[in-house]
């Protein structure tokens, strides 16, 4: 590991008079889980929105070191262009295609790969062999992720009808079906029960071990964060206030101070600690 | 303080309440009836005079009172009786028959002109219904699949029709090349129009499409030199079968269908031929849409309808998806327009007003957005119902408007509102390795 | 001389445009209020205006027959009767065709509204006949502001009446929306209907009142158009409705001042474009400007931009 996969420098996002993100630096590496934590309203989701092309940052540089395409400045890309470089996200308030089935959700995610294989839909319209093979491969990819996330049984259900925990898993499966380089998860454990959270931790550890991709994780569940992160960045009021390993962060005074006013987060940290 | 009036369909509403509701409804009806049923302005030579037919007022009140009361009393038992219908699902075996439904329907439709009861009138009506099915199949892509409300679809219909009219009369093209040109011109127009407005969302998009529809109509109406203005274009080439015409006499250097086949000339042949052409076009369009839904582009259309932001987060370019949806829908609208022009032999701007767009949209929504079977049922309903009501001549449009309201209240999602998945994991061939594991 | 003539012509178009714009603006308010509160395009609103115009014609004819000669008295009676009955139509339409669809998919009420529009048009055609109705001029006279040879710049009494009444209604309306409990209830329902209901606002009644008010204003517009042109038929609601709806969107749908501004702009564009360029293409000009404005400002001139929350 020489240079990090993602290198964010001086990221700043201003909404009118509100400075939501203030010169944040952070990095994410392959085969690592990097956590981004901070109290409510700290600017974490805004950082994701800038990173994934939903907001145009006021200032800053978002450098992705792509293994084949070389260095890419993400802030110069159009919204959908970012996902095409392999930076794929999930949303804090789940965004599935609710009346499509789970399997269809995962196939839409493979649009980029499938589109050329359907040769402007012509090969697909004529149902040519090359297209059929491509579609089967896409279904296989989807099936693998459904199996890993224990969603096989609901593959043909409408995504919008599933329980909250399942919908969160579908969103992760959908993001992984795109074969990403950097997976950005916005509070994936929110609303999950302890058992589901444990399964999530195992899944993320598994992805880290097997897929050679980077994971960037926003999470309020401190137990989960301390448990599986390799590196943690802490933001408060838009600014980065600390960075380090879980052990370092746990004892960082500024972090404790930032969270002290927030009994919720404090509780979460205790609850997480007990889960070991 | 007025007590809240309970819902009229509530099961446990006491009779007094129903009575009260019905009385209120009757009184309101009487009030509404006064200026229109009770008083009539009549044009006489010396100017307007008002005639009073006040007897209509209590009549209207009584009809509404009784209707309301009876409906209220019947609502609960009717809903109970209809409950099994709502939850009815076709038996498991029917699943396998599904793929055969389309071809069987096309075969049955193709046989229609040869059935004993099929006279000119039936074939003509069938042709009109098929034109609307084709139009609505196209609009269904934009509205039903991609979720982009389009209130100006008749513009694409018009462009197809005028392209056909002008290429055959000015450039002396035959019907078939003109058909292709009509579809392509419409499609191209859709691409050009949609590019600047894709940023708009929802209702703003709707009003802009309405604007484009009107602009197209007004330009056609006023560009006398090209389109003939309100007089329209006549003498449009009729379709030919391998260059055989369906006229009584062959044109110079050509042959007629009856000469070559030896079948005695009959004017119905042309009607049947037209019917079969539009049936083939419509069947092809429906098949194409069914296939497209299973392709990445079709799935992207539906995904865009569901959540544009999620689409972007997966690397899908919403602009391309929207433009392709407009272009594909317009292609079908253009084909329908071109066929329409060739069938009539004449086009004029009044066939492409806003009511036409609204009718096509109504077919899509009444049928159940995104559903091809729904489009067919709704198109038949919209074309055939006013014909059936011919006996009531003047009242048919009134009944038509009323029916649209009632169907929406009865089935707000359209007649066939369920969405069929484009693929099922249980049907997909599993990977052999996975089976072994 | 040529210059002053040019100015005179310009002013005449301006006056005509303002009059037309006032009428469009009054109809547009109905679209915008309904859209604001239930996010629905009340497609039948143009027919409401047409109904208002028909009731005006009937009432005027009755009054003339009864020998009422005082114009102000006739106007007051006609306005009162037309507004009352038209408002009853507005109330009924919401109750019958839209309220059952309040939780339905977005397009269902829209299709129901198209059905309602067809129904009302044909209802009026059947009951009142398809031929156009023309009234003898009720209000005549006016003032000549300026004249020069053949050209004279005039402001008719009808135009004055239309513009003044519109200004008064607008002022009154703004007060209602900003100051009264009804206005507050309306704004609350716009923000969050469920929450408003939980806080004890009678949502159904607020929505009904919105329709009633919108229909009342449309009826005023109907009376004005009856006076101004003297001829109406069962089909006038369609075009006027479409223009007014365009005006509402141009101004920013959901915004009251926006509707008025949009109405004025559409009226002025029509008048000036017909006067200086081509009357055949006046609607093309109106729609083109709408499209241009929306491309630059996707939520209209005075509409609040809706932020895309991620
Ligand atoms: N589009 C926007 N326009 C204006 N302000 C915004 C916008 N998006 C976010 N903000 C503001 O930026 C600040 C940071 O919000 P953000 O959603 O990034 O916080 P967060 O760290 O994700 O919080 P949480 O843990 O609650 O999800 C907040 O004050 C928020 O109101
Ligand atoms: Mg957040």
TrEMBL record, chain A:
A GO cellular component annotation in the UniProt record: plasma membrane
Segments forming domain ABC transporter: 6-262
Domain of life of the source: Bacteria
Keyword Protein biosynthesis listed: no
Keyword annotations of the record: Amino-acid transport, ATP-binding, Nucleotide-binding, Transport
GO process terms (BP): D-alanine transmembrane transport; L-alanine transport; L-isoleucine import across plasma membrane; L-valine import across plasma membrane
Similarity section: Belongs to the ABC transporter superfamily.
NCBIfam families: PRK11300.1
Name this polypeptide is given: ABC transporter ATP-binding protein
A molecular-function term among this protein's GO annotations: L-phenylalanine transmembrane transporter activity
TrEMBL record, chain B:
Transmembrane segments: 22-42, 54-79, 99-118, 130-159, 171-192, 272-290, 323-342, 362-385, 397-416
Lineage: Bacteria, Pseudomonadati, Pseudomonadota, Alphaproteobacteria, Rhodospirillales
MF annotations from Gene Ontology: branched-chain amino acid transmembrane transporter activity
Subcellular localization(s) per the UniProt record: Cell membrane
Domain High-affinity branched-chain amino acid transport system permease LivHM N-terminal stretches: 18-110
InterPro entries xrefs: ABC_transp_permease, LivHM_N, LivM-like
One term under GO cellular component: plasma membrane
Organism of this sequence: Nitrospirillum viridazoti CBAmc
Keywords: Cell membrane, Membrane, Transmembrane, Transmembrane helix
Keyword Lipid biosynthesis: no
Protein name according to UniProt: Branched-chain amino acid ABC transporter permease
Membrane topology (UniProt): Multi-pass membrane protein
Principal subcellular localization: membrane
TrEMBL record, chain C:
Subcellular location: Cell membrane
GO cellular component: plasma membrane
Membrane topology (UniProt): Multi-pass membrane protein
Keyword tRNA-binding among UniProt keywords: no
Matching CDD domains: TM_PBP1_LivH_like
Gene Ontology terms for molecular function: L-isoleucine transmembrane transporter activity; L-leucine transmembrane transporter activity; L-phenylalanine transmembrane transporter activity; L-valine transmembrane transporter activity
GO biological-process terms attached to the record: D-alanine transmembrane transport; L-alanine transport; L-isoleucine import across plasma membrane
Highest taxon of source: Bacteria
InterPro entries: ABC_transp_permease (IPR001851), BCAA_transport_permease (IPR052157)
Predominant location: membrane
TM region(s), chain numbering: 14-36, 48-67, 73-92, 104-124, 158-177, 207-228, 284-303
Swiss-Prot/TrEMBL keywords: Amino-acid transport, Cell inner membrane, Cell membrane, Membrane, Transmembrane, Transmembrane helix, Transport
Family: Belongs to the binding-protein-dependent transport system permease family. LivHM subfamily.
Protein name: Branched-chain amino acid ABC transporter permease LivH
């Amino acid at each position: 590991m020489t240079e990090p996969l993602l290198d964010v420098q001086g990221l700043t996002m201003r909404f009118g008079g509100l400075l939501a993100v203030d010169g944040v630096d952070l990095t994410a590496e392959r085969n690592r889980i990097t956590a981004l934590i901070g109290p409510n309203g700290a600017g974490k989701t805004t950082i994701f929105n800038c990173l994934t092309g939903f907001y145009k940052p006021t200032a800053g540089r978002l450098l992705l070191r792509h293994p084949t395409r070389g260095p890419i400045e993400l802030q110069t890309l159009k919204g959908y262009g970012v996902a095409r470089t392999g930076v794929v996200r999930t949303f804090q308030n789940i965004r599935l295609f609710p009346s499509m089935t789970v399997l269809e959700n995962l196939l839409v995610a493979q649009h980029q790969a499938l589109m050329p294989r359907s040769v402007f839909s012509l090969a697909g319209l004529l149902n040519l062999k090359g297209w059929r093979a491509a579609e089967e491969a896409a279904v296989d990819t989807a099936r693998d992720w459904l199996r890993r996330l224990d969603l096989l049984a609901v593959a043909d259900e409408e995504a919008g009808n599933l329980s909250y925990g399942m919908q969160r898993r579908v969103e992760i499966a959908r993001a992984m079906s795109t074969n990403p380089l950097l997976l950005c998860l916005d509070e994936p454990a929110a609303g999950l029960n302890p058992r589901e959270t444990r399964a999530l931790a195992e899944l993320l550890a598994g992805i880290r071990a097997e897929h050679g991709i980077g994971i960037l994780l926003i999470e309020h569940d401190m137990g989960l964060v301390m448990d599986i992160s390799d590196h943690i960045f802490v933001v408060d009021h838009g600014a980065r206030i600390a960075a380090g390993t879980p052990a370092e962060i746990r004892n960082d005074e500024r972090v404790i101070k930032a969270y002290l006013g927030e009994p919720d987060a404090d509780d979460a940290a205790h609850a997480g600690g007990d889960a070991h | 303080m007025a007590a809240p009036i309970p819902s009229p369909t509530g099961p446990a509403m006491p009779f007094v309440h129903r009575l009260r509701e019905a009385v209120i409804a009757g009184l309101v009806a009487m009030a509404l009836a006064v200026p229109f049923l009770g008083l009539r302005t009549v044009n006489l030579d010396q100017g307007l005079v008002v005639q009073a037919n006040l007897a209509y007022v209590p009549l209207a009140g009584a009809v509404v009172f009784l209707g309301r009361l009876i409906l209220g009393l019947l609502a609960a038992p009717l809903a109970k009786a209809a409950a099994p219908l709502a939850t009815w699902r076709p038996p498991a075996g029917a699943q396998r028959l599904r793929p055969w439904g389309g071809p069987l329907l096309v075969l049955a439709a193709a046989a229609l002109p040869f059935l004993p009861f099929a006279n000119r009138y039936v074939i003509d009506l069938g042709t009109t219904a098929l034109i609307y099915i084709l139009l609505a199949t196209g609009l269904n892509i934009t509205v039903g699949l991609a979720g982009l409300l389009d209130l100006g679809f008749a513009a694409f219909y018009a462009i197809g029709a005028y392209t056909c009219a002008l290429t055959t009369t000015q450039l002396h093209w035959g019907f078939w090349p003109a058909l292709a040109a009509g579809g392509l011109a419409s499609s191209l127009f859709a691409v050009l129009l949609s590019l600047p407005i894709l940023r708009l969302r929802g209702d703003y998009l709707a009003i802009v499409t309405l604007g484009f529809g009107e602009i197209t109509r007004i330009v056609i109406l006023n560009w006398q030199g090209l389109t003939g203005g309100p007089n329209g274009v006549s003498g449009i080439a009729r379709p030919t079968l391998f260059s055989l015409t369906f006229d009584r006499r062959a044109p110079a250097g050509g042959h007629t269908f009856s000469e070559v086949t030896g079948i005695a000339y009959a004017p119905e042949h042309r009607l049947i031929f037209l019917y079969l052409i539009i049936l083939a076009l419509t069947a092809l369009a429906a098949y194409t849409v069914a296939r497209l839904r299973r392709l990445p582009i079709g799935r992207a259309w539906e995904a865009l309808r569901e959540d544009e932001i999620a689409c972007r987060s997966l690397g899908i370019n919403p602009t391309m998806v929207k433009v392709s949806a407009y272009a594909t829908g317009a292609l079908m609208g253009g084909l329908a327009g071109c066929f329409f022009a060739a069938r009539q032999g004449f086009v004029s701007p009044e066939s492409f007003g806003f009511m036409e767009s609204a009718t096509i949209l109504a077919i899509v929504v009444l049928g159940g957005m995104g559903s091809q079977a729904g489009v067919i049922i709704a198109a038949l309903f919209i074309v055939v119902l006013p014909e059936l009501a011919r006996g009531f001549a003047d009242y048919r449009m009134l009944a038509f408007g009323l029916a649209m309201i009632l169907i929406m209240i009865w089935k707000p999602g359209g007649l066939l509102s369920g969405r069929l998945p484009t693929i099922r994991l249980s049907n997909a061939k599993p990977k052999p390795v996975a089976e072994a594991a | 001389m040529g210059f002053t003539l040019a100015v005179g012509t310009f002013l005449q178009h301006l006056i005509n445009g303002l009059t037309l714009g006032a009428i469009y603006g009054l109809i547009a308010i109905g679209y915008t209020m309904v859209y604001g509160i239930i996010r629905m395009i009340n497609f039948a609103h143009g027919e409401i205006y047409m109904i208002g115009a028909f009731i005006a014609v009937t009432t005027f004819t009755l009054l003339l027959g009864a020998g009422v000669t005082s114009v102000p008295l006739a106007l007051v009676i006609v306005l009162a009767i037309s507004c009352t009955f038209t408002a009853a139509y507005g109330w009924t339409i919401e109750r019958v065709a839209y309220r059952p669809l309040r939780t339905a998919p977005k397009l269902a009420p829209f299709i129901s509204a198209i059905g309602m529009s067809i129904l009302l048009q044909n209802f009026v055609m059947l009951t009142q006949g398809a031929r156009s109705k023309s009234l003898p001029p009720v209000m005549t006279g006016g003032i000549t502001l300026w004249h020069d040879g053949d050209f004279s710049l005039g402001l008719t009494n009808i135009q004055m009446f239309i513009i003044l009444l519109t200004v008064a209604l607008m002022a009154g309306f703004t007060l209602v929306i900003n100051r009264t409990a009804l206005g507050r209830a309306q704004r609350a329902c716009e923000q969050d209907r469920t929450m408003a209901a939980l806080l004890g606002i009678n949502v159904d009644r607020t929505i009904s009142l919105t329709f009633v008010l919108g229909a009342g204003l449309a009826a005023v517009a109907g009376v004005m158009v009856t006076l101004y042109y003297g001829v109406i038929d069962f089909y006038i609601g369609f075009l006027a409705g479409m223009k007014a709806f365009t005006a509402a969107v141009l101004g920013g749908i959901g915004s009251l001042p926006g509707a008025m501004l949009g109405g004025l702009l559409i009226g002025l564009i029509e008048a000036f474009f017909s006067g200086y360029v081509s009357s055949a293409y006046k609607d093309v000009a109106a729609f083109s400007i709408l499209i241009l404005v929306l491309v630059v400002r996707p939520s209209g001139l005075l509409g609040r931009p809706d932020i895309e929350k991620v």
